[in-house]
Amino acid sequence: MRLLVVEDDEAAAAYLVKGLAESGHVADHTIDGEIGLRLARSGDYDVLVVDRMLPGRDGLSLIAELRREGIHTPTLILSALGAVDDRVDGLRAGSDDYLVKPFSFSELLARLESLARRVRAELAAAHLRVADLDVDRVNRSVSRAGRPIRLQPREFRLLEYFARHAGQVVTRTMLLEHVWGYNFDPQTNVVDVHVSRLRAKIDKGFDPPLLETIRGVGYALRAP
Amino acid sequence: MHPEFARLLRTSVFRLALGYASGFVVVLAMVLAFAYWSTTRHADERTDKMLAAELAGLIGVHDRVGITGLAAEIEWRVKDYARDGVHYLLRAPDGRPVAGDLPVQSTTVVPASGDPMIVIEGPPGSEPDVQPSAVRVLGKRLPGGYVLFVGHVLHVERAIFNHALKVSLIAASVAAALILAAGGILGLRVVRRIDAVSRTAARIMAGDLTQRVPVDGSGNEFSDLATILNQMLARIEALLGRVREVSDNVAHDLRSPLARLRSNLEVTLLQPRTAVEYRDAIRQAIGDSEDLLRTFNALLSIARAEAGPRDAALPIIDLCGAVAETVEIYEALAAEGGIALDFDVGDGAIAVRADTQLLAQALCNLLDNAIKYTPRGGSVQVCVSRSAGRARVEVADSGPGIPHDQREHVLERFVRLDQVRRLPGNGLGLSLVNAVVEYHRACMRLEDNRPGLRVVIELDALPITQGSPRLPRFPVDAGVVASAGRG
Predict the structure, then answer these.
(1) CATH number of the CATH domain containing A78
(2) ipTM of this predicted complex?
(3) Tens digit of pLDDT for each residue in B196-208?
(4) Chain A: nearest CA to B333, how far in angstroms?
(5) Which of B96, B211, B244, B341 gives B92 a disulfide partner, CB atoms 3.0 to 4.6 angstroms apart?
(6) Which residue pairs, CB below 8 angstroms and at least 24 apart, start in B165-173?
(7) Class of domain B3-158
(8) What CATH superfamily is the domain B316-476?
(9) Residues A96 and A25 in one domain
(10) Are both A19 and A55 inside the same structural domain?
C-alpha cells in the first residue's frame, strides 16, 4: 500500500519509512502539517499516518480539514498524548484510529493494514465467511463445515472481529480496544486465554486450522 | 520618611483609623458649632429681655423726674450694678455723654421712633477683666434729643462657653490621637503578621519547602489564616514529595532493565555470531523493551489517576455490570489455572460515578493478583453489594495473603513481598488500585480472608431511581473510542 507519514521527529519517521518499505509498502514523508495536507489532497494514499504536534498545521486540524473537504482517506494518529480525552479528540477530528507512542512497529503495521483493507460493504454484511467457517451476524450463530458451533456472547464478538479482519494480523491491543473496550493492557495477557478458548471451539476437530498465532504480534484468522 | 512608617501609612487599618479620626473631628466641630449657635442665641435673648426691662425702668424714671433725675439715677446704678456687668450711657443731643460709662460712639445713630435698636459694641475699656469681650447694647431715643443706652457685658456666657469649647477640643484631640494610635498599633500588627507570611513565602520560593508560617495560638483570624496556609503548604510539600518519589522510583526501576537491555545488545556485538543468535538477541531486546514500556505505562496510569478528576463530574455507570465484564475476562484465566472464580453480583444494578477505564484497570489488577497468588485448586470470590448508600466490591482469594504489618507497605510503588519475587510482575498493581481508589474518593481495606487476602473497596452509591433506563457500562465518550476504527 501507499502511505503518507506526517511526523516531525525525523529519526522516528526514518525508521518508520524504512520499516514500511521492508514490509513491502511505499511511504512518503513530510515533517510539515501544511505540506502534509497538500500531499494528502492528491488522494493517492491508502492510509495517512499523522502526528499530532506538527510545524505548519497540527495533526487534528489537518485531518479535520481533509474530512471537511470530503476526503476520507483512512487516517491513523500517532501521538505521545495518550489520555482518554486525547483519544476522543483525535477520533472526533475524523481520525479512524489512534496509537499512542511508544508503540511497537508490528502493532502499527497491523493497524495500518487493517485500515487500508477495510471494505465498507463488509461492515453491513449479514454473513462473514472464512474458508468453511460461517459467521451469521443476524442470528449471532457460527457454523463450520455445516456443523453448528456454540459460542459465548463475548467469544462471538471476538470471532466476529477476527472474521471482519480476515486475512489480517490483529494485535492484542486491537482486540482489547474493540472487543472489550479497554484502552489499557492488563498485567497478564488475558487475551491469549480467550483466543485459545475460541480456537479450541472453531479449530479443534476441523482441518485446516484457521486461527493462527503470529509470534510477538497477535493473531490472524485466515484460510491457508 | 522611615520605610516602616511609610508602610504603616499605607495599611488599610491605619487608613481606616485616619478616616475615623478625621470624621470624628468634623462631626465634633459641627456639634460644637451648633452648640455655640444655640447657646449664644439663648443667652442673647435673655440679655435682650433684661436690657429691655432696664431700659423701660429708666424711661419710667425719666418720665417721673426728668433728664437730670435720670442722669443721677444712672450714676447711682453704674456704681451699684457694674459688678453684674450692666452698663449705661445717657447721651446729650450734641453727642456729649451726660452720664454712664458705656463707650458708645457719639456717631451711633438710633432711630427716632419705633422699637429700641440693638447694637453691639465693645469692648468696654473700663472693665479690664472682661477683655476680650463684647457688650450687647440697647438704645432708645428720649424726648428732647437725648439717647439712653443700656448695655450688658457678655463675658459670663462667653467664659462658660469658651471653657466648654476648650474642654471639648482637648477631649477631641485626645480621642483623635487615641484612634490614630490604635490604628497605628493595629496597622503595625497587620504589617508584622503579613511580613511573617511574606518572609515564609520568600524562603519557600527560595527552595526551602519545610518553612511554615508562625502560628501564635491566639485563635484570631491571623492564626486561622496561618493554619490554613500551613495546611496548604503541607499538602503541596507532600505532593511534591510524591512526585520526587515517583521520579526516583522511575529512575531506579527503569535503570536496571535499561542496563540489561543495553548490555545484552553490546555483548551480542562483541564477536561475530550466527543469524539465529542475532535474531535471538534482538528478540530478547524487544522483550526487555516491552517490559520497560509496561512498567512505564503503569506508572503513567498511576500518575494520571493521582492527578485526580480533571473537570466535569464522572459519568454514572453500573458497578455490577462493570465488575461482571472484568470477571468474565478473568474466568478463562482462572479456569486455566484450576481456580474456582465465584461471582456474586447481588440483585440489580448499583449506580456509581466512576471512570470506566480506571475502574476496569483497577479491577483487572485485583483479579490478576488474586489469580496469580492463588494456588491450583484454590478459589477467588468477587462480590458486589450495596448497603447504607455505599457500594462495596470485594475480591477475596485463598492465596498466601499479606501479613498484617505489611499491608500498608504493599500499596507503595514497586514493593514486592519476598515470597512472591519469583512470580512475574512489576510491583505496581496495588499502587495503581490505590491511586484509582483515591481518584474516586473511595476507600480500600486489605483484610485477612483466613486464608488469603480480601480487598474491600467502598465507594459512594447513587440513590436508586425507579424506572431509570439501563445504565451504560461505558460513558458516551469511551463508546466513541470503543467503536472507532472498526472495519
Answers:
(1) 3.40.50.2300
(2) 0.76
(3) 888 888 988 888 8
(4) 6
(5) B96
(6) B165/B32, B165/B36, B168/B28, B168/B32, B172/B24, B172/B25, B172/B28
(7) alpha beta
(8) Histidine kinase-like ATPase, C-terminal domain (3.30.565.10)
(9) yes
(10) yes
Give buried/exposed letters for B155-181 (b at 16+ CB in 10 A, else e): bebbeebeeeeeeeeeebeeebeebbe
Which residue, among A15, A188, A192, would best test binding to B if mutated, counting the most B CBs under 10 Å from its CB?
A: A188
Q: Is the pLDDT of residue A219 over 90?
A: yes
Stretch B465-483: mean pLDDT: 45
**Which CATH entry fits the domain spanning B221-306: 3.30.1300, 3.30.70, 1.10.1060, 1.10.287?**
1.10.287
What are the extents of the domains in chain B?
A: 3-158, 221-306, 316-476
Which three cell numbers, joined as nine digits, stand for B148? 439712653
Q: Model confidence at B481, in pLDDT bands (50, 70, 90)?
A: very low
Strand B390-397 versus strand B453-460 pairing type: antiparallel
Predicted confidence (pLDDT) per residue in A91-140, tens digit: 889 999 999 888 888 889 999 988 887 655 456 678 888 889 999 988 88
Q: Is A105 on the interface with B (CB under 8 A)?
A: no
Tell how strand B340-344 and strand B147-153 pair up. unpaired
Residue closest to B180 by CA, chosen among B13, B67, B343:
B13
Q: Which residue has the cell 487608613?
A: B15
Structural domain harbouring A28: 2-116
Closest partner residue to A182 (CB to CB) among B360, B368, B429 is B360
DSSP E strands: which ranges in B64-121? 86-91, 97-100, 117-121
My answer on whether A106 and A156 are in the same domain is no
CB B302 within 8 A of CB B428: yes
Coil vs helix vs strand at B36: helix
CATH number for the domain that contains residue A149: 1.10.10.10
Name residues whose C-beta falls within 8 Å of residue B447's C-beta, 6 or more positions apart in sequence: B453, B454, B455, B456
Q: Which residues in chain A have Cβ-Cβ distances shorter than 8 Å to B310? A: 85
Contact at CB, A182 and B336, closer than 8 angstroms: no
The answer on pLDDT for B412 being more than 60 is: yes
On the question of pLDDT at B479 being above 50, the answer is: no
Per CB-CB distance under 8 Å, the chain B contacts of A186 are 329, 361, 364-365, 368
Question: A84: which chain B residues are within 8 Å (Cβ-Cβ)?
Answer: 355, 357, 477-478, 481
